[in-house]
Structure formats: C-alpha cells, structure tokens
C-alpha cells in the first residue's frame, strides 16, 4: 500500500526544471523522474510548469495515499481522471513520474520482471552520433544514428556505438568540423545534411553497423515546404518523398524517423511503400494507441517510437505497445532530449521485447540507461539480442 508520496523539483540534462517523485511503501522509498522533450508534437500529453505542479500536488498526494501500488493501472486511471483529456490539469510530467515510481514500488525495482517475467530479449541501441535540428545542431535533420546489427551481446552493441562515436569525433576534430555536442551527446558539425550522412556512412561501414536518421520533419516544415537551410533547398511534399528515397538508397538507411510532418499520413504511407527501411512515427503517433490505429488504416509507417511521457502513464504506454504488436509495427522505446539519470526505459524496452532503444550515446543521463541494460543482461538466464528484419 502507498504510505506516502513526495515530489520535488530537480533539473534535467539541459538545466531545466523537472519533477522527481518518491513513493513509500512498507519496503521503503522508490523514485522516478520525468524527462522533457525539446521537439514536442501537437498530439502529446501536456506538461505543466513545475511550480504549478508543486502547488497542486498536496491535493493529488492525499488521494494517492492508501492506494495499492501493485494495482498501478488504477493509480494511472485516477491521475488520468484528475488530469483531463491531455493531462493539462496536473501535467504529464507529474503523472509519468508517479506511474513509474509506482511500478518500481510494486516490483521492488525489478521492473522488467514485473512487467514481463519471461523477458530475455534485448534491444539494439540506436546511438545518436551526430546532432542537428532542434537539438542544437547545424543540419535540418535532427539525429544521425547507428545500429550495431552484428553485435551478439548488449555490451558489444554499446561498445560498437561508442567506437563509431569516438571515431567520428576524431575525424571531425582533425578536419575542424567539430563545434561541440548536442542535447543527446551526438557531435555537432559544420557539415550539411548530405556531408554528415557521407561521413557517418563511411565510418559506420567499417564497424559493420547500419545507419539511420531522425528527420523530425515537423520542425522544418513551414508553409507547405520542407526547408533545408544549409542545403539551400525548399521541398514540396512530393519532392520531400523523392529526397528521402534518394538518401535512403544512397546511404543504405536502415531506419528513418519522422520523414514528414506530424499530420501527413499519406506521406508516411508513401515512404513506407517505396522505401525498404523502418519508417518510424514519433510526432505522427505520440505513443497514442488511437493515433496508431488510425495511421495503420493508411499503412502509415511500420514502426513507432514509445515515449511514456507522451501519454503520461505506463498503463497507456503498454496499451500502445500491445496495439503496435497486434498491427505488426516495431516498437522503439525512446528517451527525450532533456533527460535525467532515470533508467526506467531500459527496463521497459526489455519487458516489451522492443527490437530497438534510443537513449543517446554520451553523457551520464544517457549512459545510465545503457549501463542498466548491461545490468539486466547479466541478471537474466540465456539473454539474447532481438531479431532485426
């Protein structure tokens, strides 16, 4: 039974205020903290200013005390009723922290076993090695990613990504391209989108890794055009499809996230039909099972980003995962650009048997999740890497 709930402001990796929650039961205290996204889609649940959350928290706390932590779905349902349609009344940043802490309390911090006692399949880490877009970069494309598809263990997969990341940083430093690191640990380069892809493709190939991109196209879609500032290009939706198809073939892209803006189901469907890659929806679906079901009717994308804070509770997150599996969509559990040291998504990726996880590549708030995957690997009998298509 929940005996006490504590909430305090903390700071994320961008130095912004977020919320951390502790739930107390007879065994002790269990905590979780909420991440913060920079490029938030219009379909996501609403966050609240932390000061506002702290002012309304006593009323929420009063109702949580006495509830059963193992019945986390009921805790989540209560918060959803209090929060309104998009949780705008109490904030998705509060509800996701409470929801995660509740499951930790129910499982005594063995989240993956609580959610899936048979779990033993591990995701490949999608490593962000170059950053752009809203993540403080030079390119319009937001993330340039690597997938260590030949790795046989989670540690080998993580180490491969680090080797590629370090190699890219070394090359960029030698040639004077390096201008620092973005929000998620990827290098920021003065090279444009195509030259960045060329560099990544060349280096990743040496390690037998595949590459991918998160275009986050909603961020540079203005007045009916996709605007690539440093390429000097302004593409119509048809031209955007041609461009995405061209770079997919030229660089053998394995993974393409959000190649069209968040309302363009037909664009996603065309890309899915024409390009032999994982076409992933993030802003398009916002971890929302209804949005995913609607998109599937149009055959829009073939994979979905899973971010618990986009829907505000783990209950709704799991519903979306189950919907994705039923519809034949791959699930990619993901961090946010403004992160904390919380490792919940590592457990979630293993529990849901997701083939991929995005949790960055450098910085303590990213590495903590990678290290948690290693811990889980070593605590499971006969662990194995996921099957990739």
Any descriptors?
TIM Barrel, Enolase-like, domain 1, 389 residues, alpha/beta, three-stranded antiparallel β-sheet
Provide structural commentary.
The chain is α/β, with parallel strands linked by helices. It folds into two domains: 4-108, Enolase-like, domain 1, CATH 3.30.390; 121-385, TIM Barrel, CATH 3.20.20.120. The chain has 13 helices and 18 strands. The strands form five sheets. An eight-stranded mixed β-barrel has the order 5-6-9-13-14-15-16-17, surrounded by six helices. A three-stranded antiparallel beta sheet has the order 1-2-3, covered by helices on one side. A hairpin with a 2-residue loop joins strand 2 (17-25) and strand 3. Helix 2 packs antiparallel against helix 3 and helix 12 packs across helix 13. It is globular, with a radius of gyration of 20 Å. 57% of the residues are buried.
Strand residue percentage: 15-25%
Coarse structural class: alpha/beta
* CA-CA gap between termini: 43 Å
Number of helices: 13
Helix share, percent: 40-55%
Outline:
The chain has 389 residues and is an alpha/beta fold. The protein folds into two domains: 4-108, Enolase-like, N-terminal domain (Enolase-like, domain 1); 121-385, Alpha-Beta Barrel (TIM Barrel), CATH 3.20.20. The protein has helices at residues 50-64, 72-83, 92-107, 111-115, 154-175, 193-206, 237-250, 265-274, 289-297, 308-311, 314-327, 344-351, 364-377; strands at 4-11, 17-25, 28-33, 121-122, 124-131, 143-147, 178-181, 187-189, 210-214, 221-222, 225-228, 233-235, 253-257, 278-281, 303-306, 330-334, 356-358, 384-385.
